[in-house]
Design a protein that fits this description.
This protein is an alpha/beta fold. The protein is built from five helices and four strands. Helix 2 links the parallel strand 3 and strand 4.
């Protein structure tokens, strides 16, 4: 629900692949309207090395965004690739905690670092 108290931050998602990992940077609101954009971007990621999703710029997340992140983590597990969703803060971190997926999405720092 939009509120005058919460400014809307435009959604953005980019990725950068290095020799050691793929970093996906996400910002803005990750919700029903924008989750498909992240899902589509994740189809273009090379799943042959660790994948880190940086949530630093995410200001809001709902179940649609969580579903995309969990799907990406599951895909990484099927392929035997490390996956982490990192740097969630404030309400986003709390939402992931309440949903019971925060620790799972954070994965193992040593396995995705690089």
């Amino acid at each position: 629900m939009l509120s005058a108290d919460r400014p809307v931050t435009p959604f953005r998602a980019t990725y950068e692949a290095t020799a050691s990992r793929v970093v996906v940077r996400v910002g803005g609101e990750l919700d029903l309207a924008t989750a498909p954009q992240l899902a589509e971007l994740l189809t273009r990621v090379e799943w042959d090395r660790p994948v880190v999703v940086d949530l630093t710029g995410v200001t809001f997340i709902d179940s649609s965004g969580i579903r995309v992140l969990c799907g990406a983590a599951a895909q990484a597990a099927r392929r035997g690739v490390a996956f982490q969703a990192v740097e969630a803060s404030g309400p986003v971190a709390r939402t992931l905690q309440v949903a019971g997926v925060a620790e799972w999405l954070q994965g193992s720092p040593s396995s995705a670092a690089g």
